[in-house]
Structure formats: structure tokens, C-alpha cells
Amino acid sequence: MSITEILFWFLTAMAVGGALMMVTSKNPVYSVLWLIVVFFAISGHYILLNAQFLAVVNIIVYAGAIMVLFLFVIMLMNMNADNEPQKNIWLKIAGMIAGGCLLLVFIAAIRQTEALQIQKVNTGGQTGLIHLLGKTLFTDYVLPFEISSVLFLSAMVGAVVLGRKGD
Amino acid sequence: MPINYYIFLAIALFSIGVAGVLTRRNAIIIFMCVELMLNAVNLLLVAFSKMHYENVVVFNPASPVGTEAQLFVFFIMVVAAAEVSVGLAIIVMMYRNIHSVDVNFLNRLKH
After folding, report:
1. Segments of chain A with pLDDT less than 50
2. pLDDT for residue B109
3. Do the chains contact at A132 and B57, CB–CB below 8 Å?
4. How far apart are CA B17 and CA B11, in angstroms?
5. Contact B23 A95 (CB under 8 A)
6. Chain B contacts of A16, Cβ < 8 Å?
7. What pLDDT is attached to residue A98?
8. What is the residue extent of each domain of chain B?
9. What is the pLDDT of residues B100-109, one digit of tens each?
10. Which domain holds residue A144?
11. Which CATH number characterizes residue A74's domain?
12. pLDDT range class, residue B97, cuts 50, 70, 90
């Protein structure tokens, strides 16, 4: 077993375990912290896939910015395990069964495809490094990049309008 | 690493996200499960971007194959950041109106 495989299985266990703990923990703050663990595991997967720029962006944007935003909102609302709304137990079991059925259907579908069995992930090359990505982003994809700035502006205006007191 | 392992990992994360959306009633945790599903799909896109072109990379390590897929994931992250800000603003507004984040109270969207 090579070091890459050991790291892959470690990060996979971390991601799946963190996701399960995120869904099952009662306290919303613990959910946020477990989701941060999942995002770090996914960033590790990006590094294993030789996509270093995306790994760093994932940590900065998701684990850094978005999760802190979630934590702020949870602390503003003063949520904890006591006033956590609970579904009744049958609805929870039904939800678990539905999610498990989705998992089963996906896995059964993928296991049948023979073309995917022989494909390997190729981690060589310099595609994930920032100079190739940056060159492509600012030459071929400069228009979507600028449009995304307009998207951010509209999202900011929308958040301010929605969060305003009164009316 | 075979591509299958990455597909199974993404499927597992996505299904956990779906089960979380179906089993929880806290709006913020439902939103976090949606983020988890988004990340599972991102991971799958990056894995697929590394699937082909072995020969190209062996002969020319600096070739830009697969750059588009990673930029696609980058733009997904950009849109996700904008989406989270608006979604959390909506949840804060909902909390201010009904003093709860329980999605069961949202079955009537008036008053």
C-alpha cells in the first residue's frame, strides 16, 4: 500500500465520518465544526489530485469565509442543542431510508459501467498550479470572471436588502 | 487511484447530504447539507478532470489539459459564496419574522 493510498483512505474516512457527524450532531455549532473537518478532507483530496490552487481556494472560501458566516449566524440566533427543532422519529427513519436508497441506486449504477473500471486518475502534470489556471482564467475566461463580479455585487445588494430592519 | 473510488466517495457524501436535508428541521443545518452536496460534486468534477490524457501529460508536463474543468469548479465556488450570503440573509430574515429556524413553520409563506 503506497503512501498515496494510505492518504486517500485516511481522507476518505475523515470526509465520510465528518459528514455523518455533521448530520447527526444535535448542537448546530458542532455541525459547523464537523463540516469544516469535511472541507479540510476534501481539500486534502484536491492536493492528492494535484489541484493545489483549488485546495487553497477551498480552504479559504469554504472553511474560512462561508463557515465563519454560518457560525456568526448561529451565534446571533443563540442556537444550541436545547432549542433544536426535532422531527419525529418515523420521519427521520424515512429520511435515512430515502438517502440510503439513493446511495444504493447510484452505487448499483456505477458498478455496472465497465468503461469506468479501467480508468485511472492521473495526478501528473502542472494543471493545478496557479500560473496555468491564472493564464487561462484571464485570457479565455475573462468575461465570465467579470460577470461573476457583477454577481457578487448583486448578491451583496440582495443580502443587505434582505437583512435590513423594518418594512 | 481508480476513478471509481472517487465516484463512490462523492456518492457517499452526496447521499449523506440528501439524508441530512430529509432528516433535519433546522434551516441552517439543511443549508449546510446543501453545501456538502455541492462540495461532493466539486470533488467529482476535479477527479474527472484528471481522468484522461495520460499520454499528453507524460510527454509534455506543462500542457494545459484539464484547466477548464478546474476553472469550472472555481466558478462553482464563486457562485456558492454568493449563494451562501443571500441564503443566510433569508434565514436571518425568517428568524426575525417567526423567531425560529424550524422549516416546519414555513409551510405557510404568508403573514
Report:
1. none
2. 65
3. no
4. 10
5. yes
6. 9, 12-13, 16
7. 92
8. 3-107
9. 788 877 777 6
10. 129-167
11. 1.20.120.1200
12. confident
Q: What is the CATH number that goes with domain B3-107?
A: 1.10.287.3510
Mean pLDDT within B73-91: 91
Of A4, A46, A107, the CB nearest to B11: A107
pLDDT of residue B98: 80
Choose from B86, B100, B102 for mutation: most chain A CBs within 10 A. Answer: B86
In a shared domain, residues A140 and A153: yes
Give the Cα separation of B4 and B47 in Å (integer).
10
Query: With 0-12 CB in 10 A as exposed, 13-18 as middle and 19+ as buried, what is B64?
Result: middle
Listed residue (B28, B105, B96, B11) closest to A30, CA to CA: B28
Q: What are phi and psi of B102, to 5 degrees?
A: -75, 120
Describe the crossing of helices A28-48 and B27-49 by its angle, rounded to 10 degrees: 0
Q: Are residues A48 and A122 in the same domain?
A: yes
State how many domains chain A has.
2
Model confidence at B21, pLDDT cuts 50, 70, 90, reads: very high
Give per-residue pLDDT as tens, B47-71: 888 877 666 666 666 666 778 888 9
Closest CA to A5 of B15, B92, B6, B82: B6
Q: Residues A113, A146: one domain?
A: no
Provide CB contacts within 8 A for A41, sequence distance 6+.
A11, A12, A14, A15, A18
ipTM above 0.95, yes or no: no
Q: CB distance from B76 to chain A under 8 Å? A: no
8 A C-beta contact, residue A45 and residue A18: no
